[in-house]
Amino acid sequence: MKLKEVAEKLNCTVIWGQEGLEQDCAGGYVSDLLSDVAGHAQEGQIWLTIQTHVNVVAVALLRNLAAILFTAGAIPGRETIKKAKEEGIVLLGTDLPTFEAGGRLYLLLRE
Questions:
Q1: How far apart are CA 47 and CA 9, in angstroms?
Q2: Among candidates 49, 60, 51, 110, which has minimal Cα distance to 90?
């Protein structure tokens, strides 16, 4: 499923990376611990997190993730958005709690 479709169906805000929404989404990974994501997330997944600092972009780049989805209304700062632009990482946002966003993503990808 394309990121664009996921973003639309989950009613996500595209914080940055509109042009990257045509890439495929291979699943999701939920964690706020950067070392966990760096060690276990799989290429092409959407990472769901409330962490908004610039280091999330480095981890997403390291694992070649499709996007970072900030949950529970978390909003990344200017430095994080700037780094995502430099590295081509799609940033999405939702007000949904992480648990609910992850559940909806799971059900959507099983359709």
A1: 17
A2: 60
